[in-house]
Design goal:
single chain, alpha/beta, nine-stranded mixed β-sheet, four-stranded antiparallel β-sheet, 7 helices
Length: 263
């Protein structure tokens, strides 16, 4: 059986976090603008984006935090197959990230799937926030995964939505859950009216709701996850994630709605 190990064990020093993003880097913006980092055991030491015009670049520059653009386009052309370009791109990105000696990598709206060697180099040290409740299942599978999770939650008949911070694995949106955010209400009466008279409004509602939960759900859950990890409260035993609760380390996740670990 696998020996118990913490995701971050050097709790006598500040945990170093590198952020990867494609757009506004709203998760990092929340952490920095709300002042959550000031009294925490973690710090953001660098940012990387795959889009040169990403709005999130200014989030880092305004605070003198190093930020680099690492575009993927140059690795893809008609002469080289995609399965050759992917490893080369992520090998270069891994090397660029290493210079900042991160203890953890945070995905803050990165619109691509992490692949080896980055995934293997930082195994169990990459976290992502997903804009839906990944504890909800249907026929044994997580119900609201993928890029359209907010819209799917709306049309799925749910009356609330939550964000989920989870570890990144080879299987997209299937990594172990660390933190579940507080609940945000969904007006299903309004959804039903839209479905009957103007279905296109559901998409607009989805877009507005997703922007709102970035601050109210994503940000606080990311901060909680980083706080737990950086203080040595998240680890693995027997291949299963363990979070420190009232009775010690248990298989489960931290639920911000009720303010405790759920096993």
């Amino acid at each position: 059986m696998e020996k118990f190990s913490l995701i971050y064990a050097n709790t006598d020093r500040i945990m170093r976090v590198v952020v990867l993003f494609s757009g506004g880097a709203s998760g990092a913006r929340y952490l920095l603008e709300e002042g959550n980092i000031e009294d925490s055991n973690y710090e953001i030491v660098a940012g990387f984006t795959d889009h040169g015009d990403a709005l999130g670049i200014d989030v880092f520059r305004e605070r003198n935090i190093p930020v680099q653009v690492s575009k993927k386009d140059s690795f893809f052309d008609d002469q080289r197959p995609e399965d050759d370009a992917q490893p080369r791109y992520f090998a270069r990105l891994t090397g660029e990230i290493k210079q900042f000696e991160p203890d953890l990598i945070l995905l803050s709206g990165l619109m691509q799937i992490i692949k080896p060697p980055l995934l293997s180099e930082y195994s169990r040290r990459i976290i992502n926030v997903h804009p839906a409740d990944l504890t909800l299942k249907e026929e044994g599978k997580r119900r609201y995964t993928g890029d359209d999770a907010v819209y799917d939650t709306l049309v799925g008949g749910e009356t609330e939505i939550r964000s989920t911070v989870h570890l990144v694995t080879e299987r997209v949106d299937q990594g172990e859950i660390i933190v579940l955010s507080k609940m945000a209400p969904i007006e299903q009466d309004m959804i039903q009216i839209f479905e009957r008279f103007n279905p296109g409004m559901i998409r607009k509602y989805s877009d507005v709701l997703q922007e709102w939960i970035k601050w109210s759900c994503d940000g606080p859950s990311i901060h909680k996850a980083l706080s737990l990890i950086s203080t040595g409260q998240v680890g693995f035993s027997g291949g299963e994630l363990r979070v420190c609760g009232e009775g010690g380390f248990v298989k489960g996740y931290y639920d911000l709605e009720i303010g405790r670990v759920v096993s």
